[in-house]
Amino acid sequence: MARLHVLEPAPARDALWTAGRAAGIVGLAALIVTLVWSPRIALLTLWNIAVPLLPATFFLSPALWRGVCPLATLNAWGNRVGTPRLLTERETWWFGVGGLVLFHLIVPARHLSLNTDGPLLASTLLAIGAIALACGALFTSRSAFCNALCPVAPVERLYGQAPLLRVPRGRCATCDVCTPRGCLDLAGPKAMRQLIGTARHDRQWLRTPFGVFAAALPGFIIAHALLPDTRGTDAIVVYATTLGASLASYLTVIGVVTVLRTPALGAVAGLATISGALYYWFASATVAAALGAPPVVVPLVRATAIALLTWWMSQVSRPLQHAAPLPH
Ligand code: SF4
Question: How far is CA 227 from CA 235, 239, 282, in A?
Answer without folding.
Answer: 12, 10, 12
